[in-house]
Amino acid sequence: GGAIFVGLDEDSTPPAIYPVELEGLAERLEQIGLASVDPRVRTTTRAIEVTPGQGVLIVLVPSSAQAPHMVEGRYRGRADKTNYVLTDADVTRIRGRLAQHADETAEILHDFVKSTAPRHKDGPLLAVVARPVVDRPDLVLGCTGADPFDWITRTLLRGPLSTTLEDRWSPDFLDGLRVERRADGWGIPRHDASGLDVEIHEDGVIRLKTGGL
Question: Are 101 and 90 in contact (CB under 8 A)?
Fold first, then answer.
Protein backbone atom coordinates (compact mmCIF):
# COMPACT_ATOMS: atom_id res chain seq x y z
CA GLY A 1 0.00 0.00 0.00
CA GLY A 2 0.95 3.63 -0.42
CA ALA A 3 0.45 6.71 -2.56
CA ILE A 4 1.63 7.38 -6.12
CA PHE A 5 1.87 10.99 -7.31
CA VAL A 6 1.54 11.31 -11.09
CA GLY A 7 2.92 14.67 -12.21
CA LEU A 8 5.45 15.13 -9.42
CA ASP A 9 9.25 14.86 -9.79
CA GLU A 10 10.47 13.65 -6.41
CA ASP A 11 14.13 13.67 -7.48
CA SER A 12 14.32 17.45 -7.74
CA THR A 13 14.95 19.64 -4.68
CA PRO A 14 12.40 20.72 -3.72
CA PRO A 15 10.08 18.27 -5.54
CA ALA A 16 8.73 19.91 -8.69
CA ILE A 17 5.26 19.69 -10.21
CA TYR A 18 4.96 18.79 -13.90
CA PRO A 19 1.20 18.93 -14.58
CA VAL A 20 -0.25 16.04 -16.58
CA GLU A 21 -3.48 15.79 -18.53
CA LEU A 22 -6.08 14.66 -16.00
CA GLU A 23 -8.91 13.73 -18.36
CA GLY A 24 -9.28 9.93 -18.46
CA LEU A 25 -6.08 9.34 -16.46
CA ALA A 26 -7.79 8.04 -13.32
CA GLU A 27 -9.87 5.62 -15.40
CA ARG A 28 -6.79 4.27 -17.22
CA LEU A 29 -4.93 3.69 -13.96
CA GLU A 30 -7.97 1.98 -12.44
CA GLN A 31 -8.11 -0.40 -15.40
CA ILE A 32 -4.45 -1.27 -14.88
CA GLY A 33 -5.18 -2.25 -11.29
CA LEU A 34 -8.21 -4.31 -12.30
CA ALA A 35 -6.93 -5.96 -15.49
CA SER A 36 -3.14 -6.24 -15.19
CA VAL A 37 -2.68 -7.14 -11.53
CA ASP A 38 -3.58 -10.50 -9.99
CA PRO A 39 -5.22 -10.52 -7.48
CA ARG A 40 -6.90 -7.29 -8.58
CA VAL A 41 -6.06 -4.02 -6.86
CA ARG A 42 -8.79 -1.44 -6.40
CA THR A 43 -7.28 2.02 -6.14
CA THR A 44 -8.80 5.40 -5.41
CA THR A 45 -7.61 8.69 -6.87
CA ARG A 46 -7.55 12.37 -5.96
CA ALA A 47 -6.91 15.03 -8.60
CA ILE A 48 -5.26 18.38 -7.79
CA GLU A 49 -5.83 20.74 -10.69
CA VAL A 50 -2.97 23.21 -11.29
CA THR A 51 -4.17 24.66 -14.58
CA PRO A 52 -7.48 23.94 -16.36
CA GLY A 53 -7.51 20.21 -17.19
CA GLN A 54 -3.97 19.62 -15.91
CA GLY A 55 -2.48 18.87 -12.54
CA VAL A 56 -1.31 16.10 -10.23
CA LEU A 57 -3.14 12.82 -9.75
CA ILE A 58 -2.72 11.06 -6.41
CA VAL A 59 -3.30 7.31 -6.61
CA LEU A 60 -4.04 5.71 -3.23
CA VAL A 61 -3.17 2.00 -3.13
CA PRO A 62 -4.57 0.19 -0.06
CA SER A 63 -2.56 -2.28 1.99
CA SER A 64 -3.52 -5.76 0.84
CA ALA A 65 -4.15 -8.93 2.79
CA GLN A 66 -3.71 -10.80 -0.54
CA ALA A 67 -0.14 -9.70 -1.18
CA PRO A 68 2.03 -10.27 -3.08
CA HIS A 69 0.33 -9.42 -6.38
CA MET A 70 1.37 -10.71 -9.78
CA VAL A 71 2.06 -8.45 -12.76
CA GLU A 72 2.83 -9.95 -16.19
CA GLY A 73 3.35 -13.37 -14.66
CA ARG A 74 5.81 -12.25 -11.98
CA TYR A 75 5.51 -11.20 -8.37
CA ARG A 76 7.17 -7.91 -7.55
CA GLY A 77 8.28 -6.23 -4.34
CA ARG A 78 8.96 -2.56 -3.76
CA ALA A 79 12.29 -1.07 -2.77
CA ASP A 80 12.89 2.62 -1.99
CA LYS A 81 12.98 3.86 -5.60
CA THR A 82 12.37 0.78 -7.74
CA ASN A 83 10.68 -2.61 -7.65
CA TYR A 84 12.17 -6.06 -7.98
CA VAL A 85 11.06 -9.61 -8.83
CA LEU A 86 10.29 -11.79 -5.80
CA THR A 87 11.67 -15.29 -5.50
CA ASP A 88 9.54 -18.31 -4.55
CA ALA A 89 10.98 -18.07 -1.05
CA ASP A 90 9.93 -14.40 -0.82
CA VAL A 91 6.36 -15.22 -1.86
CA THR A 92 6.14 -18.11 0.61
CA ARG A 93 7.50 -15.94 3.43
CA ILE A 94 5.08 -13.06 2.74
CA ARG A 95 2.03 -15.31 2.49
CA GLY A 96 3.07 -17.15 5.62
CA ARG A 97 3.29 -13.85 7.48
CA LEU A 98 -0.18 -12.82 6.28
CA ALA A 99 -1.65 -16.17 7.29
CA GLN A 100 -0.08 -15.76 10.72
CA HIS A 101 -1.56 -12.26 10.91
CA ALA A 102 -5.04 -13.65 10.20
CA ASP A 103 -4.61 -16.35 12.87
CA GLU A 104 -3.43 -13.80 15.43
CA THR A 105 -6.37 -11.52 14.64
CA ALA A 106 -8.80 -14.41 15.13
CA GLU A 107 -7.13 -15.18 18.46
CA ILE A 108 -7.47 -11.53 19.56
CA LEU A 109 -11.19 -11.62 18.70
CA HIS A 110 -11.66 -14.94 20.51
CA ASP A 111 -9.98 -13.64 23.69
CA PHE A 112 -11.98 -10.41 23.46
CA VAL A 113 -15.30 -12.24 23.23
CA LYS A 114 -14.27 -14.68 25.96
CA SER A 115 -13.46 -11.85 28.38
CA THR A 116 -16.55 -9.81 27.48
CA ALA A 117 -19.34 -12.38 27.09
CA PRO A 118 -19.80 -13.20 30.81
CA ARG A 119 -20.93 -9.59 31.42
CA HIS A 120 -23.63 -9.84 28.73
CA LYS A 121 -25.56 -12.95 29.72
CA ASP A 122 -28.98 -11.37 29.36
CA GLY A 123 -28.84 -10.30 25.72
CA PRO A 124 -26.94 -10.24 22.46
CA LEU A 125 -23.34 -9.09 22.28
CA LEU A 126 -21.62 -7.42 19.34
CA ALA A 127 -17.83 -7.69 19.39
CA VAL A 128 -15.66 -6.31 16.58
CA VAL A 129 -11.88 -6.31 16.21
CA ALA A 130 -9.98 -4.41 13.50
CA ARG A 131 -6.24 -4.92 13.17
CA PRO A 132 -3.87 -3.14 10.74
CA VAL A 133 -2.04 -5.23 8.18
CA VAL A 134 1.05 -3.16 8.99
CA ASP A 135 2.61 -4.48 12.21
CA ARG A 136 3.90 -1.48 14.17
CA PRO A 137 3.66 -1.34 17.97
CA ASP A 138 3.54 2.47 17.91
CA LEU A 139 1.28 2.93 14.88
CA VAL A 140 -1.29 5.15 16.61
CA LEU A 141 1.37 7.21 18.35
CA GLY A 142 2.75 8.12 14.94
CA CYS A 143 -0.64 9.64 14.08
CA THR A 144 -1.49 11.32 17.36
CA GLY A 145 1.66 13.35 17.94
CA ALA A 146 2.30 14.77 21.37
CA ASP A 147 -1.31 14.72 22.58
CA PRO A 148 -3.16 11.42 21.89
CA PHE A 149 -6.20 12.54 23.90
CA ASP A 150 -6.66 15.63 21.74
CA TRP A 151 -6.15 13.65 18.52
CA ILE A 152 -8.67 10.96 19.43
CA THR A 153 -11.20 13.54 20.58
CA ARG A 154 -10.76 15.71 17.50
CA THR A 155 -10.52 12.91 14.93
CA LEU A 156 -13.12 10.50 16.26
CA LEU A 157 -15.50 12.15 18.68
CA ARG A 158 -15.77 15.32 16.61
CA GLY A 159 -15.56 13.40 13.33
CA PRO A 160 -17.28 10.18 12.24
CA LEU A 161 -18.48 9.21 15.71
CA SER A 162 -20.31 12.54 16.06
CA THR A 163 -22.15 12.22 12.74
CA THR A 164 -25.88 11.74 13.11
CA LEU A 165 -27.07 8.95 10.84
CA GLU A 166 -30.25 9.26 8.83
CA ASP A 167 -31.73 6.51 10.99
CA ARG A 168 -30.59 6.79 14.60
CA TRP A 169 -29.17 3.68 16.21
CA SER A 170 -29.00 2.95 19.87
CA PRO A 171 -26.58 2.92 21.54
CA ASP A 172 -24.34 5.41 19.72
CA PHE A 173 -21.37 7.66 20.47
CA LEU A 174 -23.07 11.04 20.64
CA ASP A 175 -23.60 13.00 23.86
CA GLY A 176 -19.99 14.14 24.43
CA LEU A 177 -18.18 10.99 25.43
CA ARG A 178 -14.84 11.25 27.18
CA VAL A 179 -11.56 9.53 26.38
CA GLU A 180 -9.76 7.61 29.12
CA ARG A 181 -6.26 6.12 29.28
CA ARG A 182 -6.00 2.34 29.50
CA ALA A 183 -3.19 -0.16 29.88
CA ASP A 184 -2.31 -0.44 26.19
CA GLY A 185 -4.19 2.47 24.64
CA TRP A 186 -7.31 4.54 25.10
CA GLY A 187 -10.96 3.85 25.68
CA ILE A 188 -14.15 5.67 24.66
CA PRO A 189 -16.84 4.20 26.91
CA ARG A 190 -20.50 4.82 27.57
CA HIS A 191 -21.17 4.19 31.22
CA ASP A 192 -24.69 2.89 30.94
CA ALA A 193 -26.55 -0.39 30.49
CA SER A 194 -25.58 -0.63 26.80
CA GLY A 195 -21.96 -1.49 27.54
CA LEU A 196 -20.89 0.40 24.41
CA ASP A 197 -17.12 0.72 24.45
CA VAL A 198 -14.33 1.33 21.94
CA GLU A 199 -10.65 0.69 22.66
CA ILE A 200 -7.88 2.11 20.49
CA HIS A 201 -4.59 0.37 21.14
CA GLU A 202 -1.17 1.89 20.51
CA ASP A 203 -0.47 -0.73 17.81
CA GLY A 204 -3.61 0.27 15.87
CA VAL A 205 -5.90 -2.54 17.03
CA ILE A 206 -9.47 -1.30 17.56
CA ARG A 207 -11.91 -3.26 19.71
CA LEU A 208 -15.61 -2.44 19.89
CA LYS A 209 -18.20 -4.12 22.05
CA THR A 210 -21.80 -3.42 22.89
CA GLY A 211 -24.82 -5.16 24.33
CA GLY A 212 -28.37 -3.93 24.55
CA LEU A 213 -28.85 -4.01 20.79
Answer: no
